[in-house]
TrEMBL record:
Residues 3-239, 255-499 form the ABC transporter domain. This is ABC transporter ATP-binding protein. Keywords: ATP-binding, Nucleotide-binding. It holds the Pfam family ABC_tran. It comes from Arthrobacter deserti. Gene3D superfamilies: P-loop containing nucleotide triphosphate hydrolases (3.40.50.300). One of its GO terms (molecular function) is ATP binding.
Length: 514
């Protein structure tokens, strides 16, 4: 199935998100869209999927004009979309999620999932998905949830698959598996529209690359181009992909965790006897696949976990048992992993989100009264400093692209004096130019003498930023190693091997892959 977009324009009031975009998506090809956060990529895909109606322009399938009243029409036409934030109901099974919207029933109105289960098993076997139709979605790893999303599109016989930032929440192993699946889909004649900021992946799978900047197509790129060349095309200037940072000069270890255990409501130890420390002027990176206790660890530091034993101290003061607001006011800056749910209030303005941790304090408030002029002044300064792409400071934060939402959260936390900075997935879904900027800001915070802890599933990011690296596996630390540790050693530790053993294995196999 050949898909063509002709002169697609999408306006939101005075904002032109897409400006007369032409695009051809051919069967058996991976067509990658590259662009900065807010460039209009996701808006264009939402038009293609029927979530938005174009202001101008036309969509054609095999040379015939089509118009969608909604996503149901797009799916019926053979277009499927896997969103950056999965559209699955956590308490439903895989089969129930996939049947949702096109439910078959038996006599008496009873839901009939037998046919759906059979389709899931057939597709799962064909592509090696290994997805159980009767598994509850909330119990599945992120990578398997994503496969369920792909299966949902294939069950509806999609010939064009839109993958919007599909690897943003995946581990390196899950990413490799997804790229292999994309290769199989392409070989079967499916057309794939791939949106990603990860240039290594783009170069690995793309047949065609189109670059969008500020809503317009500015040209194409050779998939064989270097990452530096692609980055320059995306942002329109030279971008340094290697972080230039001086060696750390660590001081006193003012942040300490001793024998910390976090128990879930189900009685499992999500964090199991973890001890670590972070010194002033250093970055400790917590590296590992999603679901190994990182979320519970950071939430325990912030006072968001109920069942915690052990000790967490900052400047000698115990944090366990204190209120979240007290912890934040003590100088802890925190960027959570899920910006849309935990990092922002989507219905609040950009300006309001930038003071969520200080809305009731000077200079933004006096007594019970807020100072709108100070709030607006702060927002305008941070929007310019962090290059947040928004229509205005009064726009709802939920209307921003994912990467720009992330910049709002980072700007809020890094714009006040800190005694500890924690960032979980600090550049997830962020474009290459913004990654360069945010990494520099994180290092600058370190160089001010702040203890910094980042949590990331991205090995490239960990190796760029870390002075030391802690690797958890199923809630326990496999070790804390220098930032210069090889990828191979880190990979073995992430799979559950203790640091010393992993280093020995790598030494035996020619020193590993740095």
């Amino acid at each position: 199935m050949k898909l063509e977009l002709k002169g697609i324009t999408k306006k939101f009031g005075p904002l032109v998100a897409n400006d007369h975009i032409d695009l051809v998506v051919e069967p058996g090809k991976v067509h990658t869209l590259l662009g900065e956060n807010g460039a209009g990529k996701s808006t264009l895909m939402n038009v293609l999927y029927g979530l938005y109606q174009p202001t101008e322009g036309q969509i054609q399938i095999d040379g015939r004009p089509v118009a969608y009243a909604g996503p149901g029409d797009a799916m019926a036409a053979g277009i499927g979309m896997v969103h950056q934030h999965f559209m699955l109901v956590p308490v439903f099974t895989v089969a129930e999620n996939i049947a949702l919207g096109s439910e078959a029933t038996k006599a008496g109105g009873i839901l009939d999932l037998d046919e759906t289960r059979a389709k899931i098993r057939r597709i799962s076997d064909e592509y090696g998905f290994d997805v159980d139709p009767d598994a509850l979605v909330e119990h599945l790893p992120v990578g398997v949830q994503q496969r369920a999303e792909i299966i949902k599109a294939l069950v509806r016989e999609a010939e064009v698959l839109i993958l919007d930032e599909p690897t943003a929440v995946l581990t390196p192993k899950e990413t490799d598996e997804l790229l292999a699946i994309m290769g199989q889909l392409k070989a079967d004649g499916k057309a794939i529209v791939f949106i990603s900021h990860k240039l290594r992946e783009v170069r690995a799978v793309s047949d065609i690359i189109t670059v969008i900047r500020r809503g317009k197509v500015v040209g194409g790129a050779d998939p064989g181009a270097s990452s530096a060349e692609l980055a320059s095309l995306v942002v329109g200037r030279s971008v340094s992909l290697a972080l230039d940072k001086a060696p750390a000069r660590p001081g006193e270890a003012t942040f300490r965790i001793d024998n910390l255990t976090v128990t879930t409501a189900g009685g499992q130890r999500a964090v199991d006897g973890v001890s670590l420390q972070v010194a002033k002027g250093e970055i400790l990176a917590v590296a590992g696949g999603q679901g190994n206790g990182q979320t519970e660890l950071t939430e325990a530091i912030l006072g968001l976990q109920d069942h915690v034993t052990g000790s967490i101290t900052l400047d000698g003061r115990e944090l366990v048992g204190r209120r979240v607001k007290d912890i934040i006011n003590s100088g802890v800056g925190f960027v959570p992993e899920d910006r849309s749910v935990e990092g922002l209030v989507g219905t609040f303005s950009v300006a309001e989100n930038m003071i969520l941790n200080r809305y009731d304090r000077e200079p933004f408030a006096k007594g019970l009264a807020m100072k709108p002029a100070k709030v607006a002044e702060n927002a305008e300064r941070l929007i310019a400093e962090f290059d947040v792409r928004t229509q205005s400071a009064t726009a709802a934060a939920g209307t921003l692209s994912g990467g720009n939402q992330q910049k709002v959260g980072m700007a809020r936390e890094l714009s006040r004096p800190l005694k500890l900075f924690i960032a979980s997935q600090p550049t997830r879904g962020v474009d290459v130019g913004s990654i360069e900027f945010l990494h520099k800001r994180i290092v600058a915070e370190r160089d001010k003498g702040t203890p910094v802890m980042i949590v990331s599933t991205e090995l490239d990011e960990v190796l760029e930023l870390a002075d030391r690296i802690a690797v958890p596996y199923r809630g326990r630390l496999m070790g804390i190693v220098p930032g210069s540790t090889s990828r191979g050693t880190l990979g073995l530790m992430m799979a559950g091997m203790a640091a010393g053993e992993a280093e020995a294995v790598q030494t035996e196999t020619a020193g590993g892959d740095k």
